[in-house]
Each structure stands twice: as structure tokens, then as C-alpha cells.
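Study this pair:
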Amino acid sequence: MTLHHSGGIAALLCGATYVAGFALLLTLLTPLGYGTEEIDTRAVAALAEAQPGLLIAWNSTIYIANGLALAVLTVALAERLQPRVPGWAGVSRALGLIWATLVLGAGMVANVAVERTSALHATDPQGAADLWGTLHAVELGLGGGNEIVGGAWILCISIAGLVSRRLPRGSVALGLLTGLAGLATLVPALGTAAGAGFGLGGIAWFLAVGTALLRDLSRPATHHPK
């Protein structure tokens, strides 16, 4: 299997992790205020004690698996763009690997938060809630609460794909909108709506890019040097 096709599989995996994340968020965590400024930290701490495995599996899916797949996709897309737009390819590689690192870091912090909160909750429920709230803030700062780096990476890939014609127009247009939504999470008043738009747009974009890479709509540029 080539890096080109591995990148396609990685893109589909990224989209799948987003779908899984939204599924649990909407069915179990939204009633707790998860993802909002009114999150019930005591309820989340109680859930961490009752079902730590569920939360760790969720964090591992949306962060750990996603971050590892992002790293593969980042390199695959950079290699695809390199022959025609080497500058954009270099920037996209840097932004993508930075994003993957932040995502992995957020996931490790999130899992530690579950483990420590679960252990403390039986003897000190309020302390557990406070601990989880503190670690959750770190998680959000790394990337769970904003999509600035991710938005910049998708925007960069989309611009490079447009200039080089190495990505289908549909995925480029979708990537431009998704990337802008990610950058909009920098504005507090737009944070929640922009984050949702980035997540939903990201699902469609990852699936579109993954499909394009697996179909190999055009042969890798490295086979056709200019």
C-alpha cells in the first residue's frame, strides 16, 4: 500500500472519528452541558466514576485515533502537493503536524482527567469536579475548545489544492468553507456555532479527500515531474 492510499484511508478514519464523537456528544454528553460554558462538572465527574471506560474510549477515538490518522494524512497530502506547489506543501505539512500534536496532547490530558477524577470522586465529589474542570480547561486550550490550527491547515490544503489542481474542486470549496469556520472559533461570540460548522464540514471534507485519494483521480504528481 502506497502513502497515497494510506492517506486516503487516514482521511476516512478522521471523518469516522468525527462521526463517532458527535454521536456520543449528542446522545450522552449534551444533557450535561458538554461543549458549552454551562457544563455540569459534578455530573461529568460522576459519569467519570460510573463509566470511565466509555469516556476514555470516546477521548481515544476523537483525539488519539484522530491525531494519528491526521499525521498520516498530513504527510500524504504534502507529498501529493510537493511537486507543483512546494511552498504550500511545506506550510501544510508544518500546520498539519502541529495540529496532530495538539490533538494527541488534548487526548492524553482528557484521559488523565477521567482517570484522576474517577479515582477521587468516591471520597471527594466536589474536589473531583474541580479537578476535572481544571484539566478540561487544559484540554480545551490544546484544541478541544478551538479549531484555529485545524482550520488554518484545511484552508492551506484547500488553497494549495486549488492552485495546483491536485484536489477535486468540490473538496477544495468545502475545505475553504470549513477552514474559515475553524478560524472563526477564535471569536468568542461565534465559537459554538463555528465549532459545529467546522466539525460537520470537517466530516464531509475528510470523506471527500479520502475518496479522492483512494480513487486516485489523477496519478501521483511524483510520477510526472515537470
Q: What stands out?
A: DSSP finds eight helices and no strands in the chain. Residues 220-226 have pLDDT under 50 and may be disordered. The helical segments are 3-29, 41-50, 52-81, 86-121, 125-144, 148-164, 169-184, 191-215. The CA atoms of residues 155 and 188 lie 20 Å apart.
